[in-house]
Amino acid sequence: MKIGIGTVVAAMVAVGGYGVYNIADALTGNDKPKGPRTVVAGSPSDEQAANAAKAFLAAWAKGDLEAAGEQTDRPDTANAELAAFRDKLKPTAITLTAGGPAAAPAGAPVQDSANAAKPVMRGFSAKVEFAGSGKAWTYEGVLPLVKMSDGKAAVQWSPAVVHPHMATGRTIDVKPVFAQASEVTDRNGKPLTAFPSLNGLLEGFKKGTDGDPAGAGSAVVITGAPKPEQLFVITEPKPVPSVKLTLDAKLQQAAEEAVKEQSKGGAHKASLVAIEPSTGNILAFANAPLGGQNRAFAGGTAPGSTMKVVTGAALLEAGVTPQSTVACPSSTTAGGQPVKNDFDGEHPSYTFKDDFAQSCNTAFINEGNKRLKADSLPKIAKEVFGLGLVWHTGLENFDTDIPVPSNINGALPEFIGQGAIRTNPLAMASVSATVQSGTFHQPVLIAGKKDIATASRQLSSSVLSDLRSLMRAVVTEGTAKDAVAGIPNVYAKTGTAEIDGKDTNSWFTAYRGNLAVAAEVEGGGHGSQAAAPAAAKLLRIGNN
Fold first, then answer.
1. How far is the C-alpha of 208 from the C-alpha of 215, rounded, in Å?
2. pLDDT in tens, 505-544
3. What is the DSSP string of 322-357?
4. What is the C-alpha separation between 205 and 185, in angstroms, rounded?
């Protein structure tokens, strides 16, 4: 039976649930083309284009994908890609409505040859329905129609026929989606939107990527582009409550002020991290100036003498004690390069405690050369302090790199935090946190994270006690005495790092009670001059 149809073709749902056209053979006739059809120069007439568009849409909606493919210039490819659309999305009904002339879609090739095929553009409307969804997905598409060797028109096939945002290399599929949290708060439920260093970094926590799969919804998504594009939500995900991070708003405010102050109006880059030693929870992090790299987590520079905390632990395990006499000469060599101290004169009667408190480079290099091996520092750094392990904090971070030199000469600069070592305030705050707690707890921004790194061992109680006494001496009689004056029970280590002949970078790491802090100021000079005052702002507040 043949029936007449108008420009708009109605669709109905078949017994199998798939939308179909009730469309007559009069549209195309029963005769199939004789031999292969090819695209020829010129354009089809408006009537040919309209008929071919309706025939293609009718077959697609009916689910007769082979017939739909025959209405294109690339039948096999069209059939396969329409089948992928059907099999991946699994719609219960499709209604396709032919429209009139349309503009060429963005990115369509420009026809500049008189002998080239010139497509005629016809629009169409799609309505796609899904089981379990209370609404239909609708979108507008465009069919380019070219003239064929049999005198009729055919759809010029490309992935964009299925959806205008599709292209070669892209895939359309149904993916799980999670609701975004309404806000991100600190550990006490206070909003964190007002802190400049967190701008742009909190959005990732709202996306619910760590959410319960049982709460996921589903959506039509195109992948393969620079980033996935969500086209339509089929089922809504369960609402996500506000996300609570480990940060503390009071300490975060102090961190923001500290790095802004030490940045000197943007002249220097400054970053700071505060950690709770008993848990590894990150309580604050800040960077200045704004808009650049999250140096606190992702920076990678030499930490200078703050690394002597780790080297000191290695020397203590090798038999040195705080009372051991370890001379501090005015100069020595490391890897064939001369090394001096930040102060003048020789101190042959210095104890190891004096060397640590005054940050004597020459003593650490000479004693390390005598007692340690090329791999001693990276080994204890990883086994005890977790440096060099892969950390999943909740944000992108750079994992500390302490290369293993081929010989002891290559290791000597590393003993004082120079050479090829690369780390950041996140890691150096964790070093102090490990000394305070006695156990490495990987820093995290979400309490209870499962994919965290663990260290393989702890320092002995005697070595740990000696190491704490060395860090305390830095405050009571050493390089940090003035910088943290008036703040009780602080244990610290200052650092000064020379990078490529530039102004020295200022470093500081310390703990007080259940709070560990590390700060770094690029070009800030000695550790006590810039980094220590920044950290002192948080140490004075404490972790309450």
1. 10
2. 999 999 999 999 999 999 999 999 999 999 999 999 999 8
3. TTSB--B-SEEEETTEEEE-SS-S-BTT-BHHHHHH
4. 10
Assign residue 345 a region: left if phi > 0, alpha if psi is -120 to 50, beta otherwise?
left
The phi and psi torsions of 125 (rounded to 5 degrees) equal -110, 135
Higher pLDDT, 227 or 442: 442
Q: How far apart are CA 157 and CA 73, in angstroms?
A: 6
- Closest by CA position to 18, among listed 61, 58, 68: 61
Could you give the CA distance from residue 229 to residue 97 in angstroms, rounded to a whole number? 25
Contact (Cβ atoms closer than 8 angstroms) between residue 505 and residue 523: yes
How sure is the predictor about 22, in pLDDT bands with cuts at 50, 70 and 90?
very low
Question: Prior bond to 289 cis, omega within 30?
Answer: yes
Q: What is the pTM of this model?
A: 0.70
Distances from the Cα of 258 to the Cα of 451, 485, 530, angstroms: 31, 17, 10
Judge whether 417 and 305 are in contact, CB under 8 Å.
Answer: yes
Torsion (CA) 48, 50, 56, 58 in degrees, nearest 10: -130
**In the predicted model, is pLDDT for residue 238 greater than 70?**
yes
Average pLDDT, the chain: 90
User: 27: which DSSP letter?
Assistant: G
Hey, which bits of 89-168 come out as E strands? 93-101, 120-129, 137-147, 153-155
Contacts of 336 (CB under 8 A, 6+ apart): 409
Q: Is the pLDDT of residue 389 over 80?
A: yes
d(CA 120, CA 83) in angstroms, rounded, equals 25
How far is the C-alpha of 300 from the C-alpha of 199, rounded, in Å?
A: 21
| Per-residue burial over 108-119, b = 16 or more CB atoms within 10 Å of its CB, e = otherwise | eeeeeeeeebeb
Are 73 and 119 within 8 A, CB to CB?
Answer: no
Give me the count of residues in the chain.
544
Which residue spans within 203-277 are E strands per DSSP? 217-223, 229-235, 243-244, 270-275
Of 312 and 9, the one with more pLDDT: 312
Contact (Cβ atoms closer than 8 angstroms) between residue 414 and residue 402: yes
Residues 498 and 504: their CA atoms lie apart, in Å, by 5
pLDDT classification of 207: cutoffs 50, 70, 90: low
Residue 109 pLDDT greater than 90, yes or no: no
Q: Residue 175 in contact with residue 183, Cβ under 8 Å?
A: no
> What's the pLDDT band for 408 if we cut at 50, 70, 90?
very high
